[in-house]
Design a protein that fits this description.
By secondary structure, the protein is of the alpha/beta class. The chain has twelve helices and eight strands. An eight-stranded mixed β-sheet has the order 3-2-4-1-5-6-7-8, with helices on both faces.
Length: 310
Amino acid sequence: MSDSTQKQSWWQRLSGGLKRTSSSIGTAISDLVTKRKLDAAMVEELEEALIRADLGVDVAAKIAAAIGVGRYDKTISADEVKSIVAAEVEKVMAPVAKPLAIEGARPFVVLVSGVNGSGKTTTIGKMAALFKADGHKVMLAAGDTFRAAAIDQLKIWGQRTGAPVIASTSGSDAASLAFEALTAAKAQDMDVLLVDTAGRLQNKTGLMEELEKIVRVMKKVDPTAPHAVLLVLDATVGQNALSQVEIFQKVAGVTGLVMTKLDGTARGGILVAIAARFGLPVHFIGIGEGVDDLAPFTARDFARAIAGME
């Protein structure tokens, strides 16, 4: 498949996946601008519609202000409003759209965190497939040792992607496993080591201690590890994602984000609110369950898809 065809099919999937978000924004825009001239009340209603789509209060206010500039008492089309929404969203997202650069260290160690149910293990499998496709030698570590299902799931992804999996029995020590995995990855000359971690938020101190211990033992093998700490977020949780970023930033020292399940919600705008508030790099976004439904994040495509532009 050529690059342009691939890009086209990803764009189709992205705009299709964000359809629930874009149609909630688009419907609100169309309803408001039809048969009316732009006035302060309309700008306020547009702002409220953007807040409802979880874009965040600050971003919604900025977009509403941009719509109002020099346009009062004039008729404005839905398409004009959409292109302003897209342009403003792109401004927020462009600084955080950064690919995950696998460079500098071998193996490059990626610690993957996130609450249970966020799609963390599946995301690791999909990332493994992407890195393998780029010619990297990848190893997986089943560090979510509390859940037998997570260990089994990672083993299946290992078979699917042809990546070796370091795993232990359920309930074993996650830090020892991480140590073993990094030692093996070094010995086998791997390019990338992806480490799954537990996602229990009920007991923050336990989670914190475990993550700190994993990092501590890894540093015995490689003082520079981990080289990236990713947080996997589920778009369907909406506003809850903001508090997850806050907690995991404190607990795990998150360096970048992956947003999954954008196709399952009308609240895809939450990624915009997160970018505006935290400024963390967004490396990948996921729409759908398939192995190729995770792709590097691009600000322009996302902004246009959110605004419902063709």
